[in-house]
């Protein structure tokens, strides 16, 4: 009886050993699908947007910084409008038109005298006058 169990165990052991040589294993690599748990580094934008959506912290210094250094919407609109009108005034020189622009801070006079362009800027606060002359422009 002992020889039967020993031979049976020996046979099972040899079969097991023989079958192990046929099995091949590779390294397991975990690739997460949910970007919250890692994964593709291109999901960084999704993670940042998700974190910002959950952020309910308000910076108490933000209002102080914008009120000191920032400008109001009316001031920005006025500045943009003045820039647009000054740009249009300077664009009209190519068609031979001259003109002037008057604001709270300055007065701009543009005169085109047969290719000699003169731009006169007067500061209303100090009365200082700056004159810019450009020669050789073809109207």
Automatic annotation (TrEMBL):
Biological role stated in the UniProt entry: May be involved in the biogenesis of curli organelles.
Q: Which Pfam families match?
A: CsgF
The molecule here is called: Curli production assembly/transport component CsgF
- Provide the alphabetized UniProt keywords: Signal
Name the source organism.
Answer: Pseudomonas mandelii
The answer, when asked if Signal is one of the entry's keywords, is yes
Q: Any signal peptide, and if so, which residues?
A: 1-25
